[in-house]
Amino acid sequence: MGEKDARTLWKELIKPTVPGSRKLYELYFIYTFLGVKRGEMLLEVLERFLPVDGKFFLDVGCGAGGLAIAFTKRSSAAVAFDIDPRYLKVAKAWSREEGVKLNLLVASGENMPFRDGTFNFVACSDIIEHLNNPAKMVSEVARVIKKGGIVYLTCPNRISPQIIWKDNHYLLPFFTLLPRRVADIYVRATKRGESNEVFFLPSYSKLVKLFENAGIRLHSWNLEEKMRAFHAALSRLKPNKAGGLIMRAVKFVLKHFYLKWICPVWIFLGKKLNEK
After folding, report:
1. Domain boundaries, given as residue ranges, for the chain
2. Rounded to an integer, what distance in angstroms lies between the CA atom of residue 173 and that of residue 190?
3. pLDDT at 125 over 60
4. Going along 109-213, which residue ranges are E strands?
5. What angle do CA 112, 68, 21 make, to 5 degrees?
6. What would you report as the CA-atom Rg of the chain, rounded to the nearest whole angstrom?
7. How are beta strands 145-156 and 77-82 bridged, if at all?
8. What is the pLDDT of residues 36-55, one digit of tens each?
9. In sequence order, what E strands does the chain have?
């Protein structure tokens, strides 16, 4: 019997675990198999800070392995793990189709089987909100990454109007505002899942502080991209003294209003501090 492709395996192994609306499954499927593209975009971002070639990359909670595939294609050594072996079967098939071989293993982000200071880059994409003990994962990330290494992190903003109206996991209104037990009942009652698997939805400040306490300083990629776009627009105008004041005012509004209250999904690049 021939080997099955990644999408066929996904439909056999993962689809039964995603109950609920057809739209929910389709969005999850599309997002997953854009993983390599997302990994390629992440590489472009990381290269602004550190050379990527020859560096050691870790994908925490890798799912179907798209990010790790993108890194491995660049001749970067990569390790990817997930707590669910079904995802790793999909990742193995997908990497085979992409012409690379991934280093895959079953493991937990809260107890990583690696030596201290092993990796140059660690990706925590779409994972921290699903952990019962996110502080333990953060301490593990800080332990396994080299000093000066880069962390990539995403996390939904529970108070963003977009997320309040329709969260990015179950497509349910007001889901992120509910207590955990009530949210669990809501998910089951709407048949969007057997239980609620979104456990950690912190404030912006709490998330930043959590990593800071572990010796990792987070920098908002959302803020940097917004400022870059605004600076490009402002540069088309005639330079004057007011330009600097406008930029500072815009940065203040973006940092203290847009990021904390409007931005639906936070994207961070964190750096392991040398003194920690």
Report:
1. 6-221+264-272
2. 11
3. yes
4. 119-124, 145-156
5. 90
6. 20
7. unpaired
8. 999 999 999 998 888 888 89
9. 56-60, 77-82, 103-106, 119-124, 145-156, 216-220, 265-272
What does the block give as tokens for 72? 């491995």
Per residue in 87-107, pLDDT (tens digit) is 999 999 999 999 999 999 999
- For residue 241, name the pLDDT band (cuts at 50, 70, 90): low
Coil, helix or strand at residue 195 = coil
Alpha helix stretches (DSSP H) within the chain: 6-13, 22-32, 35-46, 66-73, 85-97, 134-144, 161-165, 180-189, 204-213, 221-234, 241-253
Pick the closest to residue 120 from 38, 52, 171 (CA basis). Answer: 52
pLDDT band at 190 (very low <50, low <70, confident <90, very high): very high
pLDDT of residue 41: 95
- Do 190 and 172 touch, CB atoms closer than 8 A? yes
CA separation for the pair 8, 33 (Å, rounded): 12
Query: What's at 43, amino acid-wise?
Result: L
In one letter, which amino acid is 146? K
Distance separating the N- and C-terminal Cα atoms of the chain: 52
Contact 141, 216 (CB under 8 A): yes
Q: Are 112 and 140 in contact (CB under 8 A)?
A: yes
**Rounded to whole angstroms, how far apart are CA atoms 59 and 40?**
14
Which superfamily does CATH assign the domain made up of 6-221+264-272 to? Vaccinia Virus protein VP39 (3.40.50.150)
Q: How far is CA 260 from CA 177, 221, 222, in A?
A: 15, 13, 11
pLDDT classification of 24: cutoffs 50, 70, 90: confident
**Contact indicator for 104, 46 with CB cutoff of 8 Å:** no
Is residue 150 classed as helix, strand or coil in its secondary structure?
strand
